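#struct-help
A.M.: can someone run this one for me? Single chain, 335 residues.
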Amino acid sequence: MLTLSAMPPVNIPALQEHERVQSDFLVLERADKKTANGDPFAILTLGNSSGRIDTSPIWSDKLAWADGAMRGKVVQAIGDIAMYGRNGSAKRQLALSAPLRVIPDNLVDVQSFLESVGDCTQLWDWMDKQRDAMQSRTLKSVVDLFFADDQFRVRFERTPGSPSSHHAKVGGLLLHTFEVASIARATARTTRANQDLVLAGALLHDIGKVEAYEVSATGFSITTSGLLLGHVVLGALMLERALAKLDAPICSDGQILELQHMILSHHGSLEFGSPVQPMTVEAEIVHWSDEASAKASDMSDSIEDATNFLSGRDTSDGKPWRVRRHVYRRGHNWD
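D.P.: on it. Structure tokens below:
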């Protein structure tokens, strides 16, 4: 495939009001609407590997500027950063100053415009080291059904941690699993729980997301399986299917039940997507490790999002939707 020799992508979260922008973006969404008078206009959601931003409304007199700018297309946009709304609810928009240029599909790698965690080598190295150090041959054999399989690893590395909230990036699931496993192992060691069992539960808890989420040219979405069953149930089914394919069993029925329980209970309660609550120390540890990773990611992303601090204060202008409370961006360091 040919590649486009374009300028480096702009850092969307760092864009400031009145800043001039000329860069390539992926069209993630296109909303075609009408004014009260019936005049058509459009708003595009543009993105790259750093984030996303909406355009200001493209009114009817300039609607031709967005011809061909449909979901999944890469466009070169020129404009300035403008603010819409008041402090506390103000949002940045890209006000176009020239027609969008749609770039031919054969000149771009569309998925390189999706948000990504970057190189995953060190994450895999750490996880493989932990697998190799497991004392329980049974648990290692179960975990290896997935994490020693090259095809699964490719899918796992591409999958986001969620479609739109925590770790919503290419490689996000791998990063999230690394964080959960790290937290869970340290907790198990401190509380004298079964470290190998906790590690196995942490590595397996979200395998269902490989079947629940998909990556396309327009971003991350939920599959039909994900909508009908959810990643929690899919993970338990994937484990059952993998074990059923073996010529000889590698663990007992009771051991299978306990591993499935850790997957099914990792969201903690029915209202948050788990059909059962944790009933073992190890399942409880995996649940709270999952919570710690997800909530810390939500908090970090909310603090790093410059649009939450447009007034220039240390506390956020409003309550970011992912944490539903004000967040604090410290103005000092601890060096």
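A.M.: thanks! The chain has ten helices and eight strands.
D.P.: also worth noting: The radius of gyration is 23 Å.
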